[in-house]
Amino acid sequence: MRGSDSLMDSVGRHWKEEVPPERAYKRRAGAAPPTVEQDKAAGGRHRRWVALGDNRYARASISLRLYRRTRRIRAYLRWSKDGETQERYVCEVSQDWRGANLAEAWRYAWEQGFVTERPLPADSKASSIGVRVNMQANRARDTGPELALRSLLHASGLRYRVDTRPIPEIRRRADVVFPRERVAVFVDGCFWHGCPLHSRPAKKNSELWSAKISGNMERDAETNALLVAAGWTVLRVWEHDDVGAAAEAVAMAVAKARQDL
């Protein structure tokens, strides 16, 4: 009987006392698109690869599932191989927010070697796969972080123009523009705009890339000054910023501008 009691005690401690809240595992309405959410949690799209063998790779995602009987959230790695969905149990997670649970599961997947980075192509000029991904992601418009921000702004009832010049006479385009309120929003990529947190010196062609990034930073500062001098409110959002907080800051700037009209 003592052995049986010990086993029950062990199982009892494993169970949670309450069912985790939905915010811990469900995607909320108006949240960032799934790809953006997964990229952020994994630390970048380049960190989401599963090696299939024969130099083949598949991009994976983390799925969170609530098991009500045990009141536990389990994380599973999912990817496609030869047209069929594959799945692997990663770990249990217990954070209060979905984003934190995704990030925890991705960290564990990396620690266990479940995922990897694809090797650089032989002809790549980038110093690492992360730098290459950042360079490829530098599209003129409709980047993942930009789409996520626009989605939240639109869901909140705000209407705006996309990828346009705040001042037609000045050849500077903003990602999101509120013409009437004179609010211009720029969503800056960490690599190309010299993010103080994530920008790292390139190892290949370092002088070339350093000069280009410095030039972009100088142009950003000049753009800010030109718009502010013309009576515009300028907001710059880093691609790594929390999209919900960024959307709230934009909404507050627009509301304030409307009060001042």
Question: Could you describe the 3D structure shown?
Answer:
By secondary structure, the chain is an alpha+beta fold. It folds into two domains: 99 residues, no CATH class; 131 residues, Endonuclease, Chain A (3-Layer(aba) Sandwich). Helices cover 37% and strands 22% of the residues. The strands form three sheets. Strands 6-7-8-9 form a four-stranded mixed sheet, with helices on both faces. The longest helix has 24 residues. The radius of gyration is 23 Å and the shape is globular. It starts with a helix and ends with a helix. Keywords: DNA damage, DNA repair, Endonuclease, Hydrolase, Nuclease. InterPro entries: DNA_mismatch_endonuc_vsr, Restrct_endonuc-II-like. Belongs to the Vsr family. It holds the Pfam family Vsr.
Produce a short descriptive summary.
The chain is 37% helix and 22% strand. With 261 residues, the protein is α+β, with helices and mostly antiparallel strands. The chain has two domains: 13-111, no CATH class; 129-259, 3-Layer(aba) Sandwich (Endonuclease, Chain A), CATH 3.40.960.
